[in-house]
Amino acid sequence: MKYVDLIKNTFIGCQLTDDEIRMARKNSDLIIKHFYKGQFLHLEGEKCINLEILLVGSIVSMQIDEYGTELVINTFESYEIIAGNILFGTLPKYPLSFFSETEGTLLQVNKLFLFDLFIKRPKVLKQFLILISDRAISLGGKIRLAKRKSLRNNIMEYLYSQSLFQGSSIITLPISKTELANRFGVQRTSVSREFSRMERDGLIKLNNKAIEILNRL
């Protein structure tokens, strides 16, 4: 009964009876998938074969560059659709990697089952189109913002502003690296790696909590 209630809260489940949900699960048209914290659920370029709806937990989509730097593009919370805009494409491959920030549960929806629902239940199709359209608009804006500046540029601009505020080229970060990472939409490890690269490239010098700005970009 627990999973029936969770599924009923989705845009698909609210249009199905309890018996229809149980039958769909029995036929593997609706599959419950559990995941752990810190798990890559999909990698960029992997084929998308099912619609997924996040029931419980938190997942982020991210780009990973050749240096291993992670740029978080979007965060998914309960009852949001994952990659619904690519499922019916000619080449349905994930354009980003998907990583779990917490443990949780996904609902996987069989592609043919979903297509049949679109035909038989127009309300399901209408809500699906609304959800993927809203997500596409939000995602497009975040990707444009992410491409506008590199992580290094963002960090250096922040350090310059703190240098002016603190009146010195040697500054102390007023926030943690985790908070700094959240500000730039990346993982904490990405910020730490970039600080190390910036020191290696002669831009800054790290000394415990103090940071000395040596050169501008």
Topology:
Blueprint: H1 2-8, H2 18-26, E1 30-35, E2 40-42, E3 50-56, E4 59-64, E5 70-76, E6 81-82, E7 97-100, E8 104-110, H3 111-120, H4 122-148, H5 151-166, E9 170-172, H6 177-184, H7 188-200, E10 204-207, E11 210-213
Antiparallel strand pairs: 1-8, 2-7, 3-6, 3-8, 4-5, 4-7, 9-11, 10-11
Helix pairs in contact: 3-4, 6-7
Q: How many DSSP helices? A: 7
* CATH class wording of the largest domain: Mainly Beta
The share of residues in extended strands comes to 15-25%
Helix-residue proportion: 40-55%
SS content category: alpha+beta
Give, in order, the helices and strands. Answer: HHEEEEEEEEHHHEHHEE
CATH topology title of the largest domain: Jelly Rolls
The global form is: elongated
Report how far apart the termini are: 58 Å
The strand count comes to 11
- Spatial ordering of strands, largest sheet: 1-8-3-6
CATH superfamily of the largest domain: Jelly Rolls
Write down the domain tally: 2
Radius of gyration over all CA atoms, rounded: 22 Å
Major sheet? 4 strands, antiparallel
Classify the oligomer: single chain
Average predicted confidence as pLDDT: 88
CATH architectural type of the largest domain? Sandwich
Organism: Lacrimispora saccharolytica (strain ATCC 35040 / DSM 2544 / NRCC 2533 / WM1)
Keywords: DNA-binding, Transcription, Transcription regulation
InterPro entries: cNMP-bd_dom_sf (IPR018490), HTH_CRP (IPR012318), RmlC-like_jellyroll (IPR014710), WH_DNA-bd_sf (IPR036390)
GO molecular function: DNA binding
Task: Explain the overall architecture.
The protein is built from seven helices and eleven strands. It is an alpha+beta fold. The protein folds into two domains: 147 residues, Sandwich (Jelly Rolls), CATH 2.60.120.10; 63 residues, Arc Repressor Mutant, subunit A (Orthogonal Bundle). The strands form three sheets. Strands 1-8-3-6 form a four-stranded antiparallel sheet. Strands 2-7-4-5 form a four-stranded antiparallel sheet. The protein has a three-stranded antiparallel sheet with strand order 9-11-10. Helix 3 crosses helix 4 and helix 6 packs across helix 7. The model has no long low-confidence stretch (mean pLDDT 88). Keywords: DNA-binding, Transcription, Transcription regulation.
